[in-house]
Amino acid sequence: MTPTLVQSHLPHAGRAPRVDLGARARDWAEIQERMLVPLYEAVYERLDVGNGTRLLGLGCGSGLALLMAVARGAAVTGVDASAPERLALARDRLLPDVPAAARARAETRLVEGGPAEAAGPGVPAYNLLTAFQPIGCMAGDSEGLSSLLEAAAPLAGHGAAVVLAGWGPPERCATSTVLRVATKLADPLRSAGSWRPASRDDLEEVAHRAGLRPDGSGRVACPFGYADVESAVRGLLSTGLFDAAVGATDKVQVDKELTEALHPHRRRDGTVWMPNVFRYLIARTP
To answer: Which Gene3D superfamilies does the record match to this protein (predicted)?
Structure first.
């Protein structure tokens, strides 16, 4: 999560909670974001990402997936219109104010905005688009994603790879039981922000709506592991998936319910461990 995880396309229900966005962005970058590293690695390995790859990351957040692509030799551009605090952390990671590092990352760009802001004269076509924020765990979490992909597709060459990510089946995602806390506490009269089981064709449906051609898929184990329950609560709250619940009740209540839901996943040494499976789809531009 995003993982959506953070879901930048999710219309949260209820009144907007008061959140320290800077602290939450740090919790995401320091605690939660690494949970999807196996997903990033599997996709990059399958697509042979490296020298010659020009990657456009949609909803890039704090940039860990981009950093991993850069380490493989890719030229990357990240865009994010919804989380300026996370984008600031991405700049710290990818564009440090060090002359030598800046030269080494001359082909790295970070843009606050959408695909249109990533376009420009002299910008070569991208051959890989990624939308790594997982969908398929909350009602409405794919809203806007197809239009985002439609806007990005013209920036890529014919047949360029487009990667979408989603939650796996609930029976293979231990975290799904914890995510139901959001449904329990959020406004029951609204569907946005409610937990729902992932559908087998979630990713394919988004791709078809965006005019993309599915061209393969895979599943990756992405366990969520935390040093303790407090870290788990902070990490899960940083995803934004519980915003509707916080808005409908308050953070104290959500913290309490989350702590109780995490109890079955707490191990004897105090750590928290939740096995999960995530799915990715590779599609192709027209």
So the answer is: Vaccinia Virus protein VP39
Residue 63: inside a domain: yes
**Tally of structural domains, the chain:** 1
Task: Give the C-alpha distances (Å, rounded to integers) separating 146 from 43, 54, 68, 151, 208.
Answer: 20, 21, 25, 9, 8
Q: Is 209 left (phi over 0), alpha (psi -120 to 50) or beta?
A: alpha
Instruction: Name the residue range of residue 240's domain.
Output: 21-284
In a domain, 227, yes or no: yes
Please indicate, yes or no, if residue 262 is contained in any of the structural domains: yes
126 beta partners:
156
C-alpha to C-alpha distance for 238 and 5, rounded to whole angstroms: 8
Question: In this structure, is the dihedral angle defined by the CA atoms of residues 71, 116, 285 and 59, taken in order, positive or negative?
Answer: positive
Prediction pTM value: 0.88
CA atoms within 13 A on the CB side of 19: 24
Cα 56 off chain centre by: 14
List average pLDDT for each run of 10 residues in the chain, which is 286 residues long: 41 53 95 98 98 97 97 96 94 77 65 90 91 86 91 96 96 92 68 61 94 97 98 96 86 94 97 98 97
How many Å apart are CA 144 and CA 75, to the nearest integer?
Answer: 26
Q: Which two tokens stand for residue 175?
A: 């975290």
**Is residue 115 situated within a structural domain?**
yes
What CATH number did the domain enclosing 199 receive? 3.40.50.150
Q: Which amino acid is at 239?
A: T
Contact assessment for residue 102 and residue 166, using Cβ atoms and an 8 Å cutoff = no
Strand ranges inside the chain, DSSP E = 54-58, 75-80, 109-112, 126-135, 156-167, 213-221, 224-226, 272-274, 277-284
